[in-house]
TrEMBL record:
Residues 10-204 form the Thymidylate kinase-like domain. It comes from Clathrus columnatus. Pathway: Pyrimidine metabolism; dTTP biosynthesis. HAMAP family: Thymidylate_kinase. SUPFAM superfamilies: P-loop containing nucleoside triphosphate hydrolases. GO terms for cellular component: cytosol; nucleus. Coiled coil: none annotated. It holds the Pfam family Thymidylate_kin. GO terms for biological process: dTDP biosynthetic process; dTTP biosynthetic process; dUDP biosynthetic process. Belongs to the thymidylate kinase family. This is Thymidylate kinase.
Amino acid sequence: MSRRGAFIVVEGLDRSGKTTQTNLLCEHLSKIGDRPVKLIKFPDRTTPIGQMIDNYLRSKSELDDHAIHLLFSANRWEMRSSLLQLLNEGITVICDRYAFSGVAFTFAKSLVASAPESTRKLTYEWCRTPDAGLPAPDLILFLDISAEVAKLRGGYGDERYEKAELQQRVREVYKRIQDDMQTSGVHWISINASHEMEVVKQEICSYVKDLSNGVNEPIKSLWLT
Ligand code: DGP
């Protein structure tokens, strides 16, 4: 396998069906491609940094919004070398959330009226900076649903960010990231995730065929100009 593996990121709002669809995508690529497929997920709650994030998400600890943002980013940086190794070994990597979640969730917090003053001063650029230089995906699939559809799916769970107002802001920030990524030539596809599971799966599958047998180009770096 001389071609490196493709790096495909799946992003989305909570309740968008991301977990189901990343599993289905993995199965599909294993069937149609000529190489192994590996599913990874951020945050990776198994490392010491990941455990701090997990405690924070389950409201077992409190952290400054800047500090938790940097921890989420550190959790991605600590996986960088193993991610590169997988890709260079020719393995296709599907990644459930990546740096785009970092910007979407942290910057969204700064847009909430009741946020502390220091959080309201967070800028979009500041949110992007810690992840600049990480491996850039070959394709980003964004699963989009409205707050209304999320509610119909049983509403949000108990974790810290699973609140309707914040999710609405997260969706707005994802749209901004989408515009930025598309102007910078990165392949970002927005998918209407409110359709039936099978319809969403078919749409996703239609975008990955070209990546199933690896990629010839070198791995790029995220957000470095
Ligand atoms: P999940 O395990 O996919 O349900 O993600 C856990 C929660 O953490 C979810 O509400 C999204 C949020 N999240 C994921 N990555 C980041 C990040 O890098 N920064 C922030 N602030 N939140 C994140």
